[in-house]
């Protein structure tokens, strides 16, 4: 009975993990595609943080959207979920640090998290909301690092296939 | 009667199935956890005596580790492929159009209907360009398409109706930079618009990253500095006083209001840069937008 309860819990966690994984995938794909489809805006958004030297602004603005899309695809497929979750949390931590830094330096910018971005009028900043939202995403990534095995994932499919092969050998 | 035994069978078979089914799923799914997977494998638990089981466990563990490496490797390769494709796309999308053409040489400017109309001759294609002197994306836009716009207007392929807005005044250090810069352009267009290439050259200078003030910055250009920039772009000295005194600033503000109303009517919101063709917004994220329009 005890074992059975544990199994049910695990199964439930598998499905919760699936929801978290697809949720985070949606976040990355939405923000990545928004940034990629308006590259001029992304350049301005990255520059507005005034952290990177001008020579690094364009390369970062060029790579970032597609890195986000790649992470979104990995999470959508459930391929190397833990690796994708670790990279996600690193990128999110950088974003959070960037927004905190902008707030601390008294800049008035939009985080450009889902496209848009750049300077905004003083008093129109939403740093707290932006940071809280990113922390929420970070918690989702943390869940997947702690427990990367989720329902309907390539990871799970490969692992179960492996197990079947080993059983056949035995 | 015949059904009963089968009814009895069902619970038994279910009872058997559930543990093996779900028990098998857990270790399978725990694959990504690496070493954790081996520990909970039923194979290892079953044969917990004898050397063979140890060897088998090791093989399983090796298999699992190898699988993890392969999955990780595939993931990394996938990330690299996506990023490289992205960089290639980006390079095309951000490529400077008409690169090497330089400043405008032949087009002239007149003021009509609250806009500055720039053309050479009477082209069949007209575009309405809405910009704000403070808008950084307009700066990026100018950098990417400025030379191509200069070339096509010089060649008589397109007429640009330039609408300088001022909704970003609030982001400038002086609080009215957008309007004053629009006034400077209006001064040049009104008093020296017939000088070939001048208006677009001054316009490019205003959006050059060396001159354009930063949003939320601590300084912007004074009227005197705007006048200097105009003269440096080739404007006659006679225009200097008009810009320095802000002679056209009020008219520029009125024009901006008129243009913002027109823009709002056409596309529902005020955003810059916006290009309208036949009163419809042009997708300027498509790098070929101007070539496509001019045909």
Structural account:
The complex is a heterodimer of chains A (170) and B (295). Chain A is an all-alpha fold and 170 residues long. Chain A has one domain (2-163). Chain A has six helices and two strands; from the N terminus they run H-H-H-H-E-E-H-H. Chain A is elongated, with a radius of gyration of 19 Å. The model of chain A has no long low-confidence stretch (mean pLDDT 90). Chain B has 295 residues and is of the alpha+beta class. Chain B has two domains: 3-93, no CATH class; 108-294, 3-Layer(aba) Sandwich (Glutaredoxin). Helix content of chain B is 57%, strand content 11%. In chain B, strands 1-2-4-3-5-6 form a six-stranded mixed β-sheet, sandwiched between helices. In chain B, 40% of the residues are buried. Chains A and B meet through helix 1, helix 2, helix 3, helix 4 and strand 2 of A and helix 1, helix 4 and helix 5 of B.
Relevant terms:
heterodimer, A: 170 residues, mainly alpha, 6 helices, B: 295 residues, alpha+beta, Glutaredoxin, 2 domains, 6-stranded mixed sheet, 11% strand, disordered N terminus
Write the layout of secondary structure elements.
The complex is a heterodimer of chains A (170) and B (295).
Chain A: H1 2-37, H2 39-48, H3 54-77, H4 81-104, E1 109-110, E2 118-119, H5 127-146, H6 154-169
Antiparallel strand pairs in A: 1-2
Chain B: H1 3-29, H2 35-39, H3 42-46, H4 51-93, E1 108-112, E2 115-119, E3 125-132, H5 136-154, E4 158-165, H6 177-192, H7 198-207, H8 223-232, H9 237-244, H10 249-267, E5 274-277, E6 280-281, H11 289-294
Parallel strand pairs in B: 3-4
Antiparallel strand pairs in B: 1-2, 2-4, 3-5, 5-6
Average per-residue pLDDT of chain B, rounded, comes to: 84
List the uncertain runs of chain A. none
The CA-CA distance between the termini of chain A, in Å, is 28 Å
- Radius of gyration of chain A equals 19 Å
